[in-house]
Design goal:
One of its GO terms (molecular function) is lipid binding. It holds the Pfam family DegV. InterPro entries: DegV (IPR003797), DegV_C (IPR043168), DegV_domain_contain (IPR050270). This is DegV domain-containing protein. It is a single chain. The chain is α/β, with parallel strands linked by helices. The chain has a 4-stranded parallel beta sheet, sandwiched between helices. The radius of gyration is 19 Å and the shape is globular. The two termini are 33 Å apart.
Length: 286
């Protein structure tokens, strides 16, 4: 008889406490470094704090991966509870967190009970895998089979965001000042998507971000055969409740999802993309 399975993720999955509890997913936090201050990425330092600090002194925080030792300390008590672990991480192309999880697992006596999955995704694009993992766990599948299925599903996660500004990307060294200035002058709103584990520009919209959101959502959903369980609308803050309600109704009208979850991205996404960034994230069938 197989052991019970615990689904775990690093804190970049951007799941709310309510969703973590509902789907019985445990998380291990990355570390946020803001000036001389250090915080675990567990909600104690929020995107609102990040934006306030940026307005005050123009500095952006840095995120540090979970270390192998931190992973060992995270995995050990779960193993002691009698669980096998399916652990999912942010794309290994974006962070060394996944490599550190693999290293920690191989150095533990119960290495055969820890199955590390590289999501190849970011934010709730990877969280979709965790939710599917929870579904398979509840169906009684063993950890190895769950991990194998999640690796198959990883390329089918449709992960993208549309940005209101390139200022934060420029400050973080991810685009040139000329590009950021040009986008601002021309009122261009770039759309970034995950491709083969990397975040790339796939389209540019023009106009106010509030007018761009509906265009972006329609184009992301158009012509795609979706896994109907769940879809996320994930944003980085400063998006009005009315706008979120309208976009939720649009998603429901344009695709047959059973549930629409609205979540706010943590500091990993927010520090790179800035306020009013928004994404619609879902699994494709093919």
């Amino acid at each position: 008889m197989s052991r019970p399975v615990c689904i775990t993720y690093d804190s970049t999955c951007d799941l709310t406490p309510a969703l973590l509890e509902r789907f019985q997913i445990r998380t291990v936090p990355l570390t946020i470094q803001s000036g001389q201050r250090t915080f675990p990425d567990d909600g104690s330092y929020t995107a609102l704090d990040l934006y306030a600090d940026y307005q005050k002194d123009g500095t952006l925080p840095k995120t540090a991966a979970v270390s192998p030792e931190e992973f060992k300390n995270f995995f050990a008590p779960i193993l002691d509870e009698g669980f096998d672990i399916v652990h999912i991480d942010i794309s290994s192309n974006l962070s060394c967190t996944c490599q550190n999880a693999l290293l920690a697992a191989t150095e533990m006596e119960a290495a055969h009970r820890i199955h590390v999955v590289d999501s190849r995704q970011l934010s709730t694009g990877g969280a979709l895998l965790a939710l599917q993992g929870s579904k398979l766990r509840d169906q009684g599948l063993p950890a190895a089979e769950i991990a194998e299925e999640l690796r198959r599903l990883a390329p089918l996660s449709d992960t993208s965001f549309v940005l209101d500004t390139l200022q934060f990307m420029w400050k973080g060294g991810r685009c040139s000042g000329v590009t950021a200035l040009g986008a601002n002058v021309l009122k261009l709103k770039p759309c970034l998507e995950m491709r083969e584990g990397n975040l790339v520009v796939c389209k540019k919209y023009r106009g106010s971000i509030e007018k761009v959101y509906p265009q972006y959502i329609s184009q992301r959903l158009a012509g795609k055969s979706v896994v109907e369980d769940w879809v996320f609308i994930t944003h980085s803050g400063q998006v009005s409740e009315e706008t979120l309600r309208e976009l939720t109704e649009q998603v429901k009208a344009e695709a047959p999802f059973r549930e629409v979850f609205i979540t706010q991205a943590g500091c990993t996404v927010s520090s790179h993309c800035g306020p009013k960034t928004l994404g619609v994230l879902f699994l494709r069938k093919e």
